């Protein structure tokens, strides 16, 4: 029987593993940590629960798809409900307007500023929707196997039609006059660790997706979705091996043929790599195998562009705060300076941050009368700033705490902290092997996107595939779920299907 190894039980690894196991192959999933989910993990103190990484659920249909594609009803695995208004925004030191995905509320917000801004907003929505439609069909939901998949007149024309050469911010300025309204549509590029001031304008699809498809909450927090993926994989007959770090991939004649665990080789017909691409290249794919071209040698990998990282503070509180929304965003007074500092490797004096308060809608995150609060502040990745220590962490978190107290109206917060844990980029690096602690992986610049991002099928060896945030199509849970699907479909194109299986899942 054909045996496949998937390395890493992050969202990308779980998604690929489900597609492959459902297609009838035997899949072994290896994870170095003691839990599945990767960054979609959970801190469980016994009293408080925290999602470690992702919290904002967008594109709910993609969350459902891996279940329906594998033949079951997603409703039997996890529960989602729509949040609206989905985020409270704090600008210039005080609460601004809530963000809503209801057209009547949106009209009130934009018309409240000016009818030109409302008209501009509708034009933005229509323009960006068309670009999204193009991007989805020609770039996101397909993998690039050979150069001809990209370097052909049709795809190049579509790339041109994406009009992605200006920055998100410049592009928004064409539609809107109000700086505050522009900010409300610009900050979302930070969800994938890229600046709105110099990231490609195609990422203006992120606020559009929030508005048109809504923002959702998964009951039990994000980790319950990772558990749902785990359950589906095991039901299909897949095997998960926790606490098992892979030391390297083995090759014979440029064909991946196994993995090394604790000095012992285990034979596999195919390896799907979910560990972060730059880390995998530098640590798991041996130079001697002759499968790394110059562009993937260690010094070139280290020269690649890495996304912005973050510090996350997890607080168990012995009280509740009714005025907080589930998602809350505080923007620095000078947002441009703040983002510029992040890109220059400076820890901001006046940090922007995002506060996630699931206890607002979910009693399972803390005991009665208590609550759990997660605060994420974007910070430089470790390539640009490598000076985290106890004092630095304390000083930076104090800056966040003082603004939480004064601007989010939590003056007594420090008196109610019952549990505290902080993750810096160093923790994201050591816990998940994320290169430079860049929580969103390789930065999605034009030269690291689409055809130029690491492919799902590795071009320089056979039987090796990649699924994950630093591979195609990119970071963010729905996009990484798609990466797992694309990698699995590339495997299915190359391997004979198991006896008795039809092609339907693989096409
Ligand atoms: C703080 C934070 C907030 C975020 N917020 C959002 C959000 O709100 N919405 C959203 O959609 N996305 C969000 N994201 C992004 C999203 O979480 C990621 O893009 C996605 O989870 C990445 O999945 P992955 O499978 O690529 O990687 P990972 O989750 O990193 O999985 C890779 C796995 O490989 C394992 N591994 C590594 N090396 C080895 C080895 N040698 N042997 C075995 N196993 C190995 C790791 O332990 C890990 O489990 C956030 C991320 C972070 C960190």
Automatic annotation (TrEMBL):
Question: GO molecular function of the protein, one example?
Answer: oxidoreductase activity
- What is this enzyme's EC? 1.3.8.-
- Kindly state which keywords UniProt assigns to this record, in alphabetical order: Carotenoid biosynthesis, Oxidoreductase
Keyword Transport listed? no
What pathway is it annotated to? Carotenoid biosynthesis
**Which segments constitute the Amine oxidase domain?**
12-492
Which is one Pfam family of this protein? Amino_oxidase
Q: Which NCBIfam families match?
A: crtI_fam
Family, similarity comment: Belongs to the carotenoid/retinoid oxidoreductase family. CrtN subfamily.
Q: What is this protein called?
A: 4,4'-diapophytoene desaturase (4,4'-diaponeurosporene-forming)
